[in-house]
Design a protein that fits this description.
Pfam families: tRNA-synt_2b. This protein has about 500 residues and is of the alpha+beta class. Helices cover about 25% and strands about 25% of the residues. The strands form six sheets. Strands 7, 11, 12, 13, 14, 15, 16, 17 and 20 form a nine-stranded mixed sheet that branches. The protein has a seven-stranded mixed sheet with strand order 2-3-22-21-23-24-25, sandwiched between helices. It starts with 10 loop residues before the first strand and ends with a helix.
Length: about 500
């Protein structure tokens, strides 16, 4: 495998296993099935029909969820915390951050933790990546629900007739994937849903005035037949998007709703994710409308750029800059070009769609806005900007794949295992840590190797039950505490925690 990483750094976290590994998926999604009699990897091998350790089909990793200790009988349906057994980071090369658009995996060790392209510009998520996505989705949904938005689901397929009615089929045709059914009716895989959501609202008839502002959102896949693909999730043909559409009775009400959702976006990025970002004026493009703003994450390896004024805090995107526009009337000395990655976009649409589809109230067309956050794009941008090197993945605390990791003692330290299990039991009682504890019991690997691998996964708090614990076990057992931080690949040794300090300390984090 080529280990060089170019400057195009949309990072992807890989944990590599044999390509032939058989994994048994249980009813809890990511949990891998394990029956009551399975107490070792040999039992899992038996379940997969392969018991020969030397066979290429012998499973080299399995995982399950449990609320009990790692050596006791476990309930597969409990989700208190996770175990990853025999997950073989054989050496430092097994955990890589790579630039997906510049490399092709040549190694047969191709089981990924975060992302693996099915083909050009199409990606799959394994369980670590899916956990990050789920956490981001939860943050977004919590904030949107708090302002009275309603989650819906709309079809991916869109009829050509519907798009033609809005007058956008020709404008989008080169960017859309097309298909036909048995009756030769034409459809597209929709890159956006303004037509469909407006048609949906129009079909409800005239609603009560108290319904407005009506804010509808969804989180799902979008499709664009991009001419130029690459940069991992930043430019792909299938992508995950949160899109919200609002409907109001008057232009002033629509402007107020636009401000409300914009403030919610700022709360998501600033308060919940704790990141710096720019809001700049933008071109509405094929979406249309009267006004548009983009949200940009500053990133030295960014794929976008903005012109920003440090004096009045106004900015414009690259498209407007190319047209000769300026962000403000301030002197040129205050205006700089900033490398960024676009992470969200908002539009004031007016009655552009509602007039065509008959979505109205009191005989007047409703006034519409739309808003979008690129889920995969945002995650890729955060990793790209917060991971200082190719050694380790870093994300905001709210999106870390797990909040706490516990590294169990080696096989030779069996006397400390019961103590370790007790620590895990205490942590699992903390409500904020439910399903957020990572237990590394790859006992055939050294503690140092597991500590480094866990830190490279971006888990912010790491507890090690190791040599120091064993030496103090009969008196006052201690646990080594480490942490990781965004923008740094350093593993920070905080110190030792006594047994009665662990739960109290972690609960305060």
């Amino acid at each position: 495998m080529n280990k060089e990483v170019t400057s195009n750094r949309t990072f992807v976290l890989l944990a590599l296993l044999r390509a032939t590994t058989t994994i048994i998926h249980g009813p809890q999604g990511l949990a891998i099935w394990r029956n009551e009699s399975a107490s070792s990897i040999y039992d899992v091998a038996w379940l997969t029909g392969c018991q020969d350790e030397n066979s290429p089909n012998f499973p080299s990793a399995y995982a399950f969820q449990s609320a009990d200790c790692p050596r006791a009988q476990r309930n597969i349906f409990d989700t208190s915390y996770w175990y990853f057994l025999n997950f073989p980071f054989n050496d430092s090369r097994d955990l890589l951050l790579v630039s997906r658009e510049d490399k092709e995996l040549k190694s047969p060790l191709d089981l990924t933790v975060f992302n693996f392209p099915l083909w050009s510009a199409h990606h799959r998520f394994f369980f670590f990546g899916q956990r990050i996505i789920d956490k981001l989705v939860k943050v977004i949904e919590t904030e949107l629900n708090a302002i009275g938005a309603h989650k819906i689901s709309m079809p991916i397929l869109g009829a050509k007739e519907m798009w033609q009615k809005a007058g956008r089929w020709n404008a989008f045709e080169s960017e859309m994937f097309h298909l036909s059914d048995k009756t030769n009716q034409s459809y597209c895989l929709q890159p956006t849903h303004e037509e469909m959501v407006t048609k949906l609202v129009a079909e409800q008839g005239e609603l009560r005035q108290t319904v407005y502002p009506l804010m509808l959102y969804q989180i799902g896949p979008k499709f664009r037949d991009e001419t130029v693909v690459g940069h991992g999730f930043l430019r792909s043909r299938e992508f995950l998007m949160n899109d919200l559409y609002s409907f109001d009775l008057t232009e002033q009400n629509a402007s107020d709703t636009y401000s409300l959702v914009s403030e919610t976006y700022q709360r998501i990025f600033h308060d919940r994710l704790d990141i710096n970002f720019y809001i700049v004026r933008a071109d509405a493009g094929n979406i249309g409308g009267d006004m548009s703003h983009e949200y940009h994450l500053p990133c030295k390896t960014g794929r976008d750029s903005i012109a920003y004024c440090s004096e009045c805090n106004l900015g414009i995107n690259h498209d407007l800059l190319k047209r000769g526009e300026k962000p403000c009337c301030c002197s040129e000395e205050y205006i700089s070009i900033v490398e960024t990655i676009e992470i969200a976009h908002t539009f004031q649409l007016g009655d552009l769609f509602t007039k065509k589809f008959g979505a109205k109230h009191g005989g007047q067309p409703l006034i519409m806005n739309c808003f979008g956050i690129g889920i995969g794009r945002l995650i890729a941008a955060l990793i790209d900007s917060m991971s200082p090197s190719t050694k380790a993945l870093r994300l905001p605390y709210a999106l870390a794949p797990f909040k706490v990791a516990v590294i169990l003692p080696n096989k030779t330290q069996s006397e400390t295992m019961e103590f370790a299990e007790d620590i895990i039991g205490h942590l699992s009682q903390i409500s904020s840590l439910q399903n957020d504890i990572f237990v590394d019991d790859r006992l055939d690997n050294s503690i140092g190797r597991r500590l480094l691998a866990t830190a490279n996964l971006g888990i912010p708090h790491i507890l090690v039950v190791g040599n120091r614990t064993a030496r103090t076990l009969t008196s006052n057992p201690i646990v080594e505490y480490y942490r990781t931080e965004a923008y740094s690949d350093e593993l920070i040794s905080v110190g030792d925690l006594e047994y009665d300090e662990v739960s109290r300390f972690i609960a305060k984090l």
